[in-house]
Specification:
The protein is built from no helices and 22 strands. The protein has about 300 residues and is mainly β. Bound molecules: calcium ion (3 copies).
Length: about 300
Amino acid sequence: MKPFLACSILLAVACAESNGPSDVALTIDAGVTFDGDGGPPLPEDTGPPAGCDQDEDGFLAEHCGGDDCDDSARGINPNSNELCSFEDENCSGTNNERLDCTFYAHGPNELYRVDPFAELVHPAGLIDTPSRFGVQDIDIDANGSIIGVTRRELLRLESDGTYEVLAAIETPANTNGLAINSSDQIFLTQKMPAGETSQAYTVTLDGSVSVLGNLEPFQSSGDCVVLKDDSLLMTAPSDDGDILVYVDSRDASTRPIGAIGSNKVYGLSASFGYLFGVTDEGRVLLIDANTGAGEELFRREDLRFWGAANGD
Ligand SMILES: [Ca+2]
Ligand SMILES: [Ca+2]
Ligand SMILES: [Ca+2]
């Protein structure tokens, strides 16, 4: 259906002068329209019926016989573009059609594509690393490549889990988080045993590791993530489950954001405008980056997630 037209009408009458035809138009300040042939007045267009286009997006609500499937959201109507989201933006009756709304996650030795909206996990391939150390975490670099780290190698992974070794690396002990910012700066976070200080590191694509700073009083639960504004977040264990922590990417100083409400959040993914978490117990979470609060979207009890990458 086309949007209705909320018209204000210029009323015109074409007059004929005695010395021949002309197209002189007269505007009349009245609520009726006369056609050019002097026919009967046409009814005034008064806009949509009351309560039928409350979001003013030009489409009538379904309860009024229209096809705006959400009359409280201007961005949702039959003319909108579908986006990776929890909404059916174009009112097609299907969410996220013809879009790839997945992000990569991995377990001990397998790569997955996770669709948090359709609540699906697609196996992508086995990861059989040369050193036989497992992949500790992954992220996507500025070119869209999947970068992973083991204790000895920096890898570029293909979408089927095969890889190319980018560099040898002496990965700091107990590293469990990796994130890449828009400048291809790689960050690593670690979880040292009780009594030892956990640190964050920066790594270049040739495998050079530098200390960024210490993460006290926190340690990395399993992942760090770079948001679209290049701010760095990580998960940190506590007695009441993991908490979301802000990490200053200049010196690794930390500030707690809030409790996620789940344990072992080993993967974080900033994708499609949302922050998702994946856990060692197969949970896929939607996390509020401002409060830390996590909501379980679904769980795959048969899977373990050890890391995740950003999806777009
Ligand atoms: Ca709407
Ligand atoms: Ca959508
Ligand atoms: Ca749709």
